[in-house]
Queue: 4 jobs
Job 1
Amino acid sequence: MKNNSRNEAVDVMVSMHQPEEATLKKYVIGFVGSLVLTFSAYLLTQYGAMNKPVMVIILAVLALSQFVLQLVYFLHVGKEFSPRLKLLVTIFMVMIVFILVAGSIWIMNNLNGRMMTHSNMVKYMNSQDGL
Amino acid sequence: MMHIFNLMASFWLGRLSLKALPPNPIQWFGASLIILVPGMIAVLLTVTKRWKWLYKEWITTQDPKKIGVMYILVAIGMLLRGGADVALIKTQQALSVGASHGILSASHFQQIVTAHGTIMIFFVAMGLMFGIINLIVPLQIGSRDVAFPFLNATSFWLFFFGMVLVNASLVLGDFAATGWLAYPPLSELRYSPTVGVDYWIWSLQIAGVGSLLAAINFIVTILKMRVKGMNFMKMPMFVWSVLGSMLLVAFAFPILTATLTLLALDRNLGMHFFTSGAGGNMMMYVNLIWAWGHPEVYILILPAFGVFSEVVATYSKKRLFGYTSMVWAIAAIVLLSFIVWLHHFFTMGAGSDVNAFFGIMTMIIAIPTGVKLFNWLFTMYRGKIRLDSPMLWFIGFVVIFTIGGMAGVLMAVPPIDFQLHNSLFLVAHFHMMIVGGVVFADFAAITYWFPKIFGFKLNETLGRWVFWLWLVGFLMSFIPLYILGFMGATRRLDHYSASLGWQQLFIVSGIGAALIGAGVGVQLLQFAYSIYKRKDNRDKTGDPWDGRSLEWSLPSPVPFYNFARLPEVSSRDAFWEAKKSRLKDRRKYEDIEIPKNTPLAFMIAALAFIFAFTVVWHIWWLAVIALLSIITLIIVRSMDEQTDYILKASEVEKLDSLYLKGAKL
Amino acid sequence: MSEAAGELKITNELIAKYDKDTKTVFGFWVYLMTDCVLFASLFAVFAVLRHNTYGGPTAQNLFSLPYVMLETMALLTSSFTAGLALLSAQRKRLKHTLFWFGVTFTLGLTFLVLELAEFSRFVAQGDSWRRSGFLSSYFTLVGTHGLHITIGLIWMIVMMVFILKRGLNDTTLKRIRMLSLFWHFLDVVWIFIFTIVYLFGVLGV
């Protein structure tokens, strides 16, 4: 397995590959972009005067943009040889996270919506024998 | 004076005191068994002077084949433990009618049922599965090792100590009496103030983290360590199914870890996640635990499907029918298994829109499963079928899995589920899936791959006895439960009225369980007899069943470095093609890196055990020490860069020629 | 690509070797993805329990955005400097690497101290995790992130010792890549804590 010429070749290849993966330029883009997005979200929340649903959508879009920005520029997703396993695993994660969070909220809201209110519950319990 | 003594004791010992010892004869008996069995093993080791051997060959090993064997040994031990629980449950249910209250108190009965479920899922089904994966996956992908051998050993020892913690509850304190998923608010401190639920939480936590690490390990192993030429569509079907299963473990077990942690925080720090007051929401627990729990079912069944794909193709002497559709079926199952979890709690009261969505998804997931079943049947069609015992297990599986699966589709209809929820009908259904599916597959796998690992075959006559005892016993045990479920018998039932007329069915079911017990007995006999007669059953060719995938190209038992020379793969069923082509072998020997043995994995897991045990008993000072020691050991390990040694090419060549001559090393 | 490598061609064999070298980093990536699911569970719990204040304070009464913004800036900047540390390490500049890790560590510690100060302020005014379902889930979600930060800080110390002892060899470089991934990942999680817990909380969503 110890094959020197091959190891050298790999070193060359890896060093060829790495500048692509992490460069100062990319980190600066990621950092400045994140700063802009964070401050927009902060200032809009602190001083903006839009109604809630609009704000939620704007903030969600800002957060997701920053998520993608940092994935690409800080975490270097998408820069690898084919098959792009890192990318595939990441997409799978996003899908599972979406299913879990959205599903839980959907189910629990549905259940909560069908719960008795507290005052009705007291009324109901009082109407039952022995309670 | 007494007061100071008490304060000191509660600091040093937490909740632990003499009161923790078992209160009644049956529990004393259980406790003494738990102490006697390891004690006898210790005596045996001392008498045969094998402690050093145990340490060098097993405790410090990094070899996935040995780790696989240990997984299976633990799982078989736990099968006996869980089986003893069954004996008590069935006896109680057969006797506890009307005026008679059987042999167990209600609380003790609930503890036993909880322990049975927990042990059978986490320490038998998962243990057998991880054991077989460890043994076979590296061989089938033409690899010499897993991606992270040290992590692999740590995973096993975490699994092992999770098992020890469950069993410790028999000796000190009690176990959860909440059912195997410990729904709050019953599992909250207010209603379960003893250590039982804590034992449950922490043993699952340790074993769960072990499983998660193992899953990451095997995902990387399969994705990154396949031999040259084996692209995705040339992987053996077992490897595909393991990849699917491990993806599920990796993405479902964190949910379990989180949920258990939240319950522990409720119990220990007075938080209000699932409490019935102060803004907690117990329904969220049920939601989360099943968001893990449903994928868990497929985690267990996918590798079972993989095993049968190998077995059916080999024993039909045909290539697997519909390979591509099998792969897509696995992919579909992996995805769909994350979108059906609500069917475990249709009755919690969600609206018809939610229930209908999850009901339909549940029915849809039956389709890829059906695709697989038909593919196996088509593989058998016009094949040269040999009805050896692995194939018998397969046929038994088809019958039982189909019955159980149909019952499952029935319960996917929410209105029907409202009738059958938490009844014995449900119990019969999931036992048919997990025993008939997973356990049968694991037994088939053990028979099928046994010669590869140990170098000799299991006795076939006894193997057939095992199968028939299991099959008849199983049907006898669970068909009555379907009927009882229809009549309204609920699960975890420790007493019922004589006027219901259920006793006969419970007795029939109990006899069935006894037959399964006899099957397990014959199984142990089969192992013992086969080991005794191993010289007659030697596998000299390395390919006793005329196999198709790479593991059969190796000598049996497989050398510690797996492949002396890495194989070349250009098609599916790589070994089958190689056997037919008889090309001249031009591969060269090369240096092999082998991981050195180390006790650190064992020590880290042992410290995790001490941590968990002391948290259960609130011995906080020791818990802190254990946690800090774990961190220290991890740092120590990270400082060691010489974790491998090199086996020279010339030595590999020498060893290989010895192995090929059939030497036993 | 092949031109830059002179006569070397990027063959399947080379890619296989490259894959082998990067398998640890890939494994670590898979671990990070599983950790995302852990956080997702906690986010789901927070989303469900966020209005269960049980007479206790709501998010609107409790959070001060400028303070949270300060924490966010510390963490975001530390994520950037962690990247610079990796960059210096890849260029084999030992002192630069240590310097940037030092900066990252200081910023990370600042973040952690700010967070703990906020926690203790809440607890001191009687709004601990025992108060309500909302507060339990708040403390657990943000606290789990804080625990990860703590682990990251310990790792960073060990890493710096390791760099000093061994220099920037292949193993060190591989581990620096993983540490920087871990640190960036924690900032990614914080984006969502910042938005969902704090911004949405202050809006009263």
Job 2
Amino acid sequence: MTEFIVITSGKGGVGKTTSSASLAVGLAKRGKKVAVIDFDVGLRNLDLIMGCERRVVYDFVNVIHQECTLKQALIKDKRYESLHVLAASQTRDKDALTKEGVERVLNELKDEGFDYVICDSPAGIEKGAFLAMYFADRAVVVVNPEVSSVRDSDRILGLLSSKTRRAENGGPPVAQHLLLTRYNPVRVAAGDMMSIDDVKEILGIEVLGVIPESEGVLAASNAGVPVILDEASHAGHAYDDAVARLLGEERPMRFLEAPKKGILSRLFGS
Amino acid sequence: MGLFDFLRGSPKQTATIAKERLRIIVAQERSARGSPDYLPLLRRELLEVIRKYVNVDQDAIDIQVKRDGDHEVLDLTVTLPDKAGAAATAAAREA
């Protein structure tokens, strides 16, 4: 049984690609057969975050236009052999993706016995974002604890419950999860940032994970190694927890508290 | 918060403001969700017609589609200006 998971947000720059890469790696690490697809036609980036940018020969649009086979376009990850990347096209126009084409590729991945297909959505609510979510069984809505991101997420949640295959066919609704990223416990404690409970209360859906703001995320994208593989980074551990929860494990939320300060930094601020 | 921040006075808790603003706008946008696309245009045209007769504000009309059992009800509320204001505009028009 193949599960299609869309990683979406509405707003740009909240961490969709970072999250797609880390969730895909986390699932592959647990022995699942995973494909991660970049739907951001014209602005390919997943390949950079995954560290396979120099191995892209064919892309998603080539497969859709039947200029190559799916097998030729899937890039096998060097770290986990059950993990495959399908890069977005860099040159074609946005209309290069079609509903029929996307469906054909997803069906082919299903026939190939993939356990999970992660669809990395572009920002916005245009065609690419629509097609990334259309066939989804599950959605991970990436949100920052910040007003515009939360509002856009609510808009996306509305689209997930009306503009998807499941919604149109009247089947069970797309399962929805929140993934809170760039969470800064110090600012939450100071009352400058909305807390996990605030965001949960406004959006009213279950939280899959909270990823603390971390220097590790930039370092990971610099190196092309998804942050989940960084043993020293809290963000990496938080992604690992999220993957476990995705697979049905129960794990307590970590990294929600500000680190304790010493007496000097307490007195003089930091 | 450090000693100096304390002396400077506590900053406003902006997270609470953010949450309140979001709560309102999200509720409003959710209620508009799924309602027919023609509502904004209908609202504008009704406003134009009403303004031929009464001088009402831009936001004087509130339109909502509500569910009542198995049929939908178009709920239309027009707020007319208070008497004094209306008299003033009428007087201004006559002058």
Job 3
Amino acid sequence: MSGDRVPLVVLGAGPAGVAAAVAAADAGVPVTLVDLGARAGGQYHRREPAPFTTARAGALHHGLDRFSDDVERLTRAPGFRHVTGAGVWGVQRLADGAVRLATDRPELPLLEADAVVLATGANERVVPFPGWDLPGVLTVGGAQALLKGQGMRPGRAVVVAGAGPLLLPVAAALARVRTHLVAVTDANDPRAWLTGSPRGLRPATVKEGAAHLAALTRRGVRVRPRTAAIAAHGDGRVEEVVLARLARDWTPVPGSERTVPADALATSHGFVPDVGLAVGLGCTLDTTEATAPAVAVDTLQATSVAGVWAAGELTGVGGARVAAHEGTVAGLAAARTLGGTVDDTTLERAVARRRADAPFLRTLARVLTVGDGWTTWLTPDTLLCRCEEVTVGTVDTAIARRDADDLRSIKLTTRCGMGHCQARMCAANVAGLLTARTGRPPADPGTLDRRPVAHPVRLGDL
Amino acid sequence: MVAGGGDTFDVVVVGSGVVGAACAYELALAGRHVLVVDRGGLAAGTTASGEGNVLVSDKPPGPELDLARASVARWADYAAQLSEPFEYDPKGGVVVATDDAGRAPLADLVARQRDVGLAAELVDGAGLRTLEPHLAADLELGAHYPDDAQVQPVLASSALLADARRLGAEVRGHCDVLGFVHDRDGRVAGVRTTQGTVGAGAVVNAAGPWATAVARLAGSDLPVRPRRGHLLVTVPLAPTVHHKVYEAGYVDTLTADTTDAQVSAVVESTPSGTILLGSSRELVGFDTTVDLAVVRRIAARARRLFPVLADVDLLRVYTGLRPWVPDHLPIVGEDPAVRGLWHATGHEGAGIGLAPATGQLIRAGITDTPPPVDPLPFRVGRPGLRPAPVEAAARG
């Protein structure tokens, strides 16, 4: 029954996971890096499949060279093993404190580790609106993946609308490859980037933002602040997008609606930590943000469960640079526990570097805010859970007629969150809607993030 | 009236799972003013963790089969009466012998069930594949039970609670019972909860696997222990499994009281298109951790019945705790040690199926009217409930 036993598994090969793996490997600990991708990179350093090459990858990728150097160094580390294309669908903490991982690779059904660093990242959040399920509507990250992974534009006439730090770089990347951008709108005010402590922004970030804005300006595109796509219409696919100006809390300003033609709408509203596997191991969640709980960690990135560290977006959204800082801390801390060579100065320096990210994270939090007003643009037939096709009206009926008053009862009485994505897409929105309808946050935050099967796995492969 | 509390009810039901909901509905029908309290969300415990079995097939002749048959009839009433739908599906059950050793006991069980008038039919291999075309080709003996049915348990509970409310009942979720109020003679007179003290003419303990803890708050005790189970849920697919199908060995796992996981295949579809795969039984305390090894064993047993499942994706897994008792019979009746305290628990994996008649038994007891079946075998002080297991307290 027991599978291979290794000292350390790092789960996720994005910026946090690779940084953790490098730190632990440098400390002499054999690292097993497990990831769904065929190559390291995660969502941030997403690349085209290996047989393809892009002439100027640097034009599409940021900080890729340094990341590639790290990955290259890892492959030479003693005992390093990179398990690619492996979906970890289940986790279990064993009686002796080890962590058992179940993968969908038939040759590696079970893997056991003395310690794990979870670096499972975040999922893009999309706030629903009427018509958001029409073909032609995709996430901003999806548009980016098309561009980076396949070299494809999402459409001929594209609206980019939403919130969060992904908006600007993706709109700019689309502009650079001469996509016709009908409108680019941010539900928040992007000037929020500049209103915090000056220490909140690194010069490089400001420079990067300015370059993105310049790319858009060159194509005659202006980013509209406090504006959102509140509906999409079309016969069989998106043909029109309704834009509206928003109050500070995202309530549409009456009379400000404007309909624009488009055949693609790229939209998302920040990120939600992917805490599913951490929940499966019993890690305590930080539910300060009740709609999007994160894994609670201490300054060494240790979770509440001994032998389990977490780094990157699942501990709170902070971007690739913060994720890498956290990964280094987690890798060092895990290595030290496993008997690796980690001197105090190295660890202290890594912790200090992560601590110095605090002003940036405060600025980021302002940019990532999702206003409560989005629930006012929903209609009863707007889909809330796309996998199970549960509408806002169905959830309202469960609240009214079946006394459903927490996330679990909504799920159990409507099937919301039971489908293919296991609530990755709808959990934050269900929590937000429930808060709006009942006037208080759900009593059971994080309930929809309990997903013992992290992603579907063939019964024959179990 | 109870000091410090504004509200008083004829009956307070502790637990909003299917058993508590059926008790509340039956009592409300009888004109009693009922309060249902649950420390969590509504029907979010054991009821939310099962398949929704309404089974007669797995019960040999005896008091539990009598209770099951009364319940099957009552579920049909509910399906016709209740205001909210709950996916009632009288689809029938198919039991399959998976090895030679299982054939004679299955034939014997069917014969005894037929003797007491239960609809049960032995079927050969060809008959099995007519009922279930995707069953493994080497299966040669089974039994068909047309009276087995299925409900969506949380919808069923919330439908019962919704109509109980229409009859004047109150339902309070996230309201935990902290203790009991007794009168001068020691009789239960109310409960202290996290939302205040409530007066009650009677209290029904329908707390499932947590019923022992509730009984102890009242100064009594029960031998109810949690027995963990795993359920696997596939992605939705076109109709593949038409009945509730399980292997004959399932009946043996019901009464095998080991701490090792007992695994036997139980396979059925739901109206949403998913297929539920069970089952496992383990006495491991209140630990609801998913055991990946058990998940794999269940998948293997299910593939034994339906090889076609190998190519189907597993989508979800959940665990739950069944209220286990030493003699495998529900505990339904008034506590001889604490008057005014009624228990309705110990149904192990059969709570959905047995809930309606349990509610009727409680209603009959509290209102002193004729019961649907003989209540004696289910009484609280029966010899089969002793000795109380020491281990339960240690793990509890």
Job 4
Amino acid sequence: MSVAKPLPHDAAKLHVTGQARYVDDTPLPRDTLHLAFGLSSIAKGRITAMDLAAVQSSPDVVAVLTAQDLPFANDVSPSAHDEPLLSDGTVHYLGQPLFLVVARSHRAARVAARRGEISYTEEDALLTLDQALAANSRFEEGPRIYQKGDAATAIAAAAHQVEGSFELGGQEHFYLEGQAALALPQEDGAMLVNSSTQHPTEIQHKVAEAIGLPMHAVRVEVRRMGGGFGGKESQGNALAVACAVAARQTGKPCKMRYDRDDDMVITGKRHAFRISYRAGFDDAGRLQGVDFTHLVNCGWAQDLSLPVADRAMLHSDNAYAIPAIRIESHRLKTNLQSATAYRGFGGPQGMVGIERLMDHIAYELGLDPVELRRRNYYDAPDEGSEGGSAPRSATSPRNISGKMIPRDNTTPYGMEVRDFELHALTDQLLKSADYAARKAEISKWNAGQSDLKRGLAFSPVKFGISFTLTHLNQAGALVHVYQDGSVHLNHGGTEMGQGLFQKVAQVAASRFGISMAQVKITATDTAKVPNTSATAASSGTDLNGMAVKAACDTIRDRMAEFLAQRHQTDVGAIVFADNQVRIGATEISFNEAAKQCYEGRISLSATGFYKTPDLKWDRIKGQGRPFFYFAYGASLTEVVVDRRSGENRILRCDILHDAGASLNPDLDKGQVEGGYVQGAGWLTTEELIWDPQGNLRTHAPSTYKIPACSDRPDVFNVALYQGENRENSIYRSKAVGEPPFMLGISAWLALSDAVAQFGEGYPALDAPATAEEIWRKARRLSHGV
Amino acid sequence: MTITFHLNGEEVVLKDLDPSATLLDFLREDRAMTGTKEGCNEGDCGACTVMVTDKAGSKPLNACILFLPQLNGKSIRTVEGAADTDGTLHPVQEAMITHHGSQCGFCTPGFVMSMVTAHKNGATDHDVQLAGNLCRCTGYAPIVRAAEAAAEQPVPQWIRHEPLPQATETEMLPRSGDALATLYAAKPEARLVAGATDLGLWVTKGLRDLGEMIFLDGCEDLKQIEISDREIRFGAMVDMNRVRETLAPLHPSYAEMIRRFASQQVRAAATIGGNIANGSPIGDNPPALIALGARLHLRQGDRRRDIALEDFFIDYGKQDRQPGEFVEAVSIPRQPDRLRVYKLSKRFDQDISAVLGAFTITLADGSVTEARVAFGGLAGTPKRATHVEQALLGQPWSEATVAAAAAEISQDFTPMTDMRASAEYRLETARNMLMRYFSDLTGASQSVLEVQL
């Protein structure tokens, strides 16, 4: 069986030879036109005049479009219809598209787009959380509140209290391939769109609205993206719609790709948060009550901000059973880029909140931070075997007679945690990473240093798997077996580097018992599989793998039935394995079987469909079972910092991550390594800076610093936890796209641990903990400044 | 303008060339060779890396900010030419597949070409070789594992032998300093192009028309490095990788700064003359050179003059350079190495400095006899900290002296706050650099980069 084999990415050879084709690499018809947006230069106001004469007369310009020229919907929003493709006369952020240039070359379009003379009446922009809060500028009528028990009373009644507040910055996706789309007009007004998107159906939907045709007139194809990370869930709409509208108007193919600086200035990023916390706990550090307030900087349009902010609330417990908790979330509307989906989708922000709180409590109590966390973990499942090394008695209180009180093992939103793997996983990681001995050695080393200190920190991950918008948890597939035995595979998921296509192909090959070479992976295509959900929420393999399995099984069952009849044997005696079909005592090749079935007039094509079972979620009440299961992981990071400059470095990282029964251990490990580095980058060097006018100053890799090669840990030990999904997922594997991102939190906590060595007091780092932030907090601890 | 180069072993002659056309656009748009990717179009991500071979050897370069005239007489190998013509993969390609070095694949061609070049040159300092290639998916670990695995394989024959074409003689590509002097004196409005690592962005980001361009790459005599008992003299066209190699044994702290200030690709294109002549307030070479007492050699036609490097930088955007005058060389007096250069940036590799401090402090009988302290990032030009220097001169070399001198830094500079750092951080860490210099020279200090497990 090809499932569970560590095969390379299906396109690896195409990648390394430069043959893998992205949107911008598509050979173009000779008359293709190129587009660029003219952008606003203020953050908020009204346009009083647009003089586009110089744009029109710029060399090689074919057309210039404004909102008035759009034939149908002027809307690229994925949610609230509040995001016009081109400004309706109002300006909501600096960088907002105002007009569209259609030109004979990419460069000509870019040159012309800068020649607009726009007059504005400027208004006061809301750029910060405080400004937005003061102006009550928000999405939804007021804050969303989820709660369990009476947090205020529990906090007040506890033996100890702690409180604090910190800033948590956003993050640019920095997918290496910028946003791109190509629209090719077809006969009868139809449109073929090639887009770098995680959500082909959304592109199809928005394009259809924009050109005034039903969805059946628009076909969207996506072979691969050069990275997505959530940044291509909704942000590709504008380019695809612009191309389709311009193609409709000119009758010519139209292509648009953002230059990197434009991409960073126009598109949304991870939501920045301010998180305030208050907690009460007992002498042993056990949480009694917790209160969080999230101030969420959503930017100017709603986009996906509501479910992002919800998911942050849903991860405010992370791995900890909290008897009473209240989470209040304000979704604030500001005049910045509209924040959007980004790997983890709010989960990382919520998780950083509780991990910060645990770090603070450990500091206050002088308790080992790992031990503190373990005391607060959810209980392991009853059968005990998986979590056997950490018996319930370690975490559950006893009543007066010494009997165990079964602890309430439910999340703040009322979902029972039934698959908690972290007790055993933590044991294993601490052992393999030699935690205790290293902690002692670091402490000794630090005692002999004045300017440099090392820090060590652990953080666990419990991440909920499923879209919280329940209806999105569905997928379709289309599988053909040709008469020569070769298999054509298609499903609704998109490939952005995560290895989805390969993992799903491994499922297909396994169902038919054939080799991978026999399975052809094909581009995602709305004409093959309709009504797809975005490839997001780590759901790609879970959903599409199941849908493909269903399609393959339908065909296989038809084949088996036919072959059984033909060979006068029982269907149960038919086995598909090793490129053969065993029919009782006889054995024929799969190819021969396909030929016989074809000649026997058996349908060798099938769709497959899957919907995640058992989900029930009320996002207003904050109650239900939003997740099918949880994925787990834990990391231990060691850093060194210099107080004179704040310079710092990750020295070592050890990770144990739960991918269930992995479909492809090497590809999954790749997600873990990459996710950790991206997560650590978010919390350290990746800093977004806007000037007081709302101008993003970090709009290129020269100023926005994602981790470079040498920033990965010197020692980087990554392993997968040996287990299997307790829920019936595809081959009992677990989703692995987003969860490892949050392993990077341990890097931020390790920096906090190192800074704490410079003096008295909790460092209270903001994020990102840039060198300057570390210098500032280290200075405060050592000099009281 | 006409030029000749080899592209994956085949000769290409381009006539009536737009001199500001980049190699990347030529490959992707004119040749439909789309393996080489555009990631940032400013030389920071490395997705467009190609291998360029000339008489001095093979180096990785960013095609996005490489003007075609810079390639006259050279050989280019792109990702399409990494494998043999029969499809046999290069060992780094094989290793990248086996070790899962690609995920989304978009940065991969650039990585492959950096790795092919490093492999050819026998370089195994992978973190340094790959500092200019950004990957957002893998976290780099599998890529480095691939580089390590491939290092054991021999250089394939099709990569080892890279014949060079004859360069085409073209007016705007002078072949010597003399020819350049004559041409530039006659066309003082023309734009001089050295490595184009800065000028390239004027075209790709500024969308500017650069007018007439004179390309200095053919001036072999400006690529000379002369080391005598008296001085080290770098011709203006010496690239920063060669500067780094030359200075590594003489002033290791300077060489280490060069390693960090740009990627392998950018250092291979960037020249020491260009880094000075563009007058950037955040160029990292000038403070280090000023701390070493460097002199700048300028030439206009047949007239030559030398000035102290610090005198070249008059004000923000203004240098002491006459129309038609160009930087010919920079020379550093030979001296015992007391130089330390400290570079502060958000990221260690390939990041523009928030502050760069360079220090050479000379002692006799325990007292300071000479102090050269220069900073970048604190003012509109690279500048000496004269108050700090004065506070050091004649004083006993002690912690107290250094602390007192460090306090003077606010007399010398009023830095600004921007996206790289706050004014306060710049000033305070600049002070700390002087303290760090003191402990460095007494052997008590360590950098986080030196901490190894």
